Amino acid sequence: MGKMKTKGTDVGKELLRGTGLVILLLLSLPGGELRGQGSWWNASWRFRVPVTVDAGSYERYDKPAEVQVNFTGLLASAGESSPFDENSLRVVEVDGGGSVVDPGVDFQFDKAPGYDAASNAAGTLVLLLNGVTPSGSSRLFHVYFEVSGSGLPAPAGHLRHAGGKIPGR
Predict the structure, then answer these.
(1) Integer Cα distance of 41 and 48 in angstroms
(2) For 136-169, how does the pLDDT look when each residue is reduced to its tens digit (9 = 90+)?
(3) How far out from the chain centre does Cα 63 lie?
(4) DSSP letter, residue 8
(5) What is the residue extent of each domain of the chain?
(6) Single pTM value for the model
(7) pLDDT tens for residues 92-149?
(8) In sequence order, which ranges of 3-53 are alpha helices (DSSP H)?
(9) What phi and psi values does residue 21 have, to the nearest 5 degrees?
(10) Which of 53, 8, 10, 46 is nearest to 30 (CA)?
(11) Which residues contact 105 (CB under 8 A, 6 or more apart)?
(12) CA distances, 144 to each of 10, 56, 106, 113 (Å)
């Protein structure tokens, strides 16, 4: 079980179903570890969910990690019924106190079969862990998202869809 923070309130639900394993990096929801810690990266986003990436017993360098996520379920757990806005996705890396250490983590959201922004906004979120992740350590991320009609600007080079590329790279 984990907690999603929304509008300054913790909402308890199982948020991310299952764990993803890519190049032996395990992603999991930290179960409320970050609850009440750190500041909100950008007040224009009302929803976020924390994600922890554990390196395991090997040092990692510039490796991807992935997690299965259902934004429809996350929004429903927060009492929101509007469709998910995939262009609202942002991923920031934070330290143990919740302070932002990288406001522009590169990521890709791959839609699951049967994806529908209103009823099944599910897929795989792939994060790029830049630099070195020492063996036995963890890295913390906040995944921010919104609903359609929020009026948020398009991402500036951090969002990729399957088959797409980050502009300028």
Answers:
(1) 10
(2) 999 999 999 999 998 888 777 654 544 444 433 3
(3) 16
(4) T
(5) 2-147
(6) 0.74
(7) 999 988 899 999 999 999 999 999 999 999 999 999 999 999 999 999 999 999 999 9
(8) none
(9) -130, 115
(10) 53
(11) 91, 92, 93, 127, 128, 130, 141, 158
(12) 14, 25, 13, 23
